[in-house]
Amino acid sequence: MQDPTLSMDRSGTSLTSWLETIAITLAAVALCFWARPADPFFLGAGFPWLIFAPALLALRYGVVQGVVSTGLLLAAWVIAGERGMIEGVFPKLYFLGTLILVMVCGQFCSVWQTRLRRLDYVYRQLDGRIATLTRRHYLMRLSHDRLEQDLIGRPMTLRSALAEVRRLISEGAGQALPGAPQLMRLLVQSCQLEVAGLHRAAAGSIDPVAAARIGEPGSLRSDDPLVRACLETGALAHVQTQGAADAGSAYLAVAPACDGEGRTLAVLAVEQMPFFSLHEENLQTLSVLLGYYADGIGRITAGQVIRELMPACPLPFAEELVRLHRIWMTVRVPTTLIGLQFGNHPERDAYAEALRRNIRDLDMVWEIQGDAGLVFAVMLPLSGRAAVDGYLTRIEGLLRDKFGKTLDAARVIPYVVQLDDERPAITLMLLLEHCGVKP
Question: For the whole model, what pTM was predicted?
Answer without folding.
Answer: 0.44
